[in-house]
Amino acid sequence: MLAAAPSETEAALARRVEKLERINAALMAQVERGMDQQGGAYALFRTAIALEGRVRARTEELTGVMHRLERSNAALAAAKEEAETANRSKTRFLAAASHDLLQPVNAARLSLSALGDLPIGPEASAIAGQVERGLQTIEDLIKTLLDISKLDAGVVRPSIKPVPLRDMMSGLVDGFEPVARRKGLRIALRCADDLCVASDAVLLHRILQNLVSNAVRYTGSGGVLLAARTRPGACRIDVVDTGLGIAEADRPQVFEEFFRGRATPDAEPGLGLGLSIVRRMAQALGHDVTLDSRPGRGTRVSLMVPLAERPAPSDAPRPAAWTRLSGARLLVVENDPSTADALCRLLRNWEAEVSVHRDLAGAAAGYATAGRAPDLMILDYHLDDGACGLDVADYLRTLSGTPIPAIVTTADHSPEIELRAAEIGAELVHKPVKPAQLRSLLTYMLA
Amino acid sequence: MEGGTQVRTHLCGIRTVWTETRDAREAVAELAAALASHAPVAHLLIFFSSDYDPEILNAALTTTFPGTPVSGCSMSGGMAPSGGFEHGLVAVAFPAKGFRIASIALDTIDRLDVEGTAAAVRALRRRLEPHGPETRPGRFALCLIDGLANAEEAVVSAIAWALDGIPLVGGSAGDDLVFRETVLLHGGRIRRRSAVLLLIDSDYPIEIFRSDNFEPTQRRFVVTASDEDRRVVHELNAEPAAQEYAAAIGLKPDLLSPLSFATHPLAVKVGGEYFCRAIRHMNPDGSLTFFCAVEEGVVLTLARHCDLVESTRAELDRIDAAVGGIDLVIGFECVLRRLDADSRQLRQGVAELYRRYSVVGFETYGEQFRAMHLNQTFTGIAIGRAPES
């Protein structure tokens, strides 16, 4: 028995070891399968449990996220504030960059107008015309977008002062008269001489300019009336046209960006930004804008502006910046409309007051209306019907009795012209005019 | 349960009918009579005893309810508000008002094409959500799966994949612990080796749940030889499986019965939680066949029961609060739980819960909860009383 016992124990131990080895092997295989992507039905069950755990975890996570969202409302508000500040500084940057943005556009337009002076074929002319229109659209778009962003960011703060209405409105009527005439439209003004409103002259001018521009664009026949009527304590400025009118359904949208009405066929397509600008500027000024329209009959847009005391003449001295470009009164004589337009835009960009004429007769009439001599004349050498820009200089200098400074522009590089310009003391600038050169010349001559 | 046919109309409009009538034709006729005086049925869900001839039952259903979609499966016992019962049928009649239902049958699940199944389920979803995937609080899915095809894990994984978070519960069809043939009904046809899936949009709050009642002991087994596809475990701890298991519970292997399996469940620990892996039957070669997949190397822990009635009550009370008052519960309960309850004389307590929470359903060979195939649980969906606002 004693001898048997150890051998029995040995057999039992051997069996036990064998079993443990097999258990071990099974466990190791299982662990290895656990690392494997492939799996049988049991693996699917295990995956399902993992998924279930994940669903629960996701629910808890979502609850957590919700709480965090609630907590982060304050942080969001702060971030919004920061973003608005950034937006404002961005707008300031854009405004500062506006001249630089527009400069190359103006340069391109002047080059194009010079191209128009060269003997090129009708096809090339047509293409040049298309490029010209494209450039104009770009320019308008840049300016308008800048204005919108400035208004939105609150960079533009109106400075409310007494504004004599008649001067402003007649200037507008004069400005649009050529366009209106080309379309066969009458454009009329009705405004008392001494009417004066409390507004920001620059913004009010832009508002009315947009309204008149729209009126002309969407009117095929008849005319446009710009009228100022006094109401108790206020003045109502109406821009009335006999155009297509605005359908009832469209009225809520016309003040939105990029809404465009059906323009008359011959009109330049608009950007759809005019009335949106009008609304923003009017809001900034606190002026009410109302719209009244009968489709097929016409539209009246009215602006309610508070009345102001007319300032005593001594209260409104010419700004001291006579010698600077800003506010300088420039007279331009140029027979080519697109060149005239480009030059005019460039000069107005520099905040000069510009009157444009196509010939001596026009310049003479402009002089008579203004009642005084311009600060400087920019004259095209070759005018229509063989006329010469130098004659205009001569005429106006004689009429005013002052040696009005003059710049003569020409695409003609002949020494004869250079000589004749020098004879009358005018500066000669060759086309295409380079804006930077023109600007420094103007600054120098007006100093 | 006192025999005859009983019907209950729930607040949500669902009507449940249950009968112990032994003849299939008669049972269907009584079902029709019970439903006759009410609004038309949008979908009829039927759980029936495997001793009904499925051909006769199906023929009776198609002639009695022409044009009404019918889904169903054989069972190992019914659950109704009057308590559990062994033979007969349980019907859940969904009204058109408040419920929108789409259903499909998935065939040949023993050779499951996972991609194809998921695609079919996605197509089913499009029938309820023609304008693209949307989440609705009252949406859920019910599945019935052949309990002898050894395919629940794959089927429920494929379905849950395509359901993408829509709550899913279901049960494995049974045949009264005979393990010979389980059948499903769908589209007027008898189906074998199949699954049926119902996707349901309800206007009522819903909540799915699963409940079990066991705790682990210190006794553990390592599966050292198994046939995973056939769900057969040959060896536990390198001993013949039945012998090792029987020794652990203090029985001779030849005395093992469904009641032993019910009383001494085995469980696996996955992700920190124990899940029952129930034994279906013992084979002559001393191996054990399971109601679920078990692979080699899996550690099975011997478990013991906790209070079945209390754990079920706690879960139903919780769900009752979650849905703002339970209107009815469609439940799937493991047949082994019923055996266990019977042996402990707990039927009364269970019946009381069924009555209180209007439980209808059947006794299964397995329960499905989201992507999981479970054993020895009470799993189901509760429908609340108040319409979703």
TrEMBL record, chain A:
Q: Does the keyword Phosphoprotein apply?
A: yes
Q: Which CDD domains match?
A: HisKA (cd00082), REC (cd00156)
What reaction does this enzyme carry out catalytically?
ATP + protein L-histidine = ADP + protein N-phospho-L-histidine
List the InterPro entries hit by this protein, alphabetically.
CheY-like_superfamily (IPR011006), HATPase_C_sf (IPR036890), HATPase_dom (IPR003594), His_kinase_dom (IPR005467), HisK_dim/P_dom (IPR003661), HisK_dim/P_sf (IPR036097), Sig_transdc_His_kin-like_C (IPR004358), Sig_transdc_resp-reg_receiver (IPR001789)
Native organism is Methylobacterium jeotgali
Q: Which residues carry this modification: 4-aspartylphosphate?
A: D380
Q: Which gene encodes it?
A: rcsC_18
Protein name (database record): histidine kinase
Identify the Pfam families for this entry.
HATPase_c, HisKA, Response_reg
What PROSITE patterns does the annotation carry?
HIS_KIN, RESPONSE_REGULATORY
Supply the EC number(s).
Answer: 2.7.13.3
Where would one find coiled-coil regions in this protein?
10-37
UniProtKB/TrEMBL annotation, chain B:
Q: Where is the signal peptide?
A: none
Tell me the ranges covered by the FIST domain, including all copies: 39-240
Q: Which organism is it from?
A: Methylobacterium jeotgali
> Which InterPro entries does the annotation name?
FIST_C, FIST_domain_N
Designated name of the protein:
FIST domain containing protein
Q: Where is the FIST C-domain domain?
A: 241-371
Alphabetical list of Pfam families matching this protein: FIST, FIST_C
Q: Which SMART domains match?
A: FIST, FIST_C
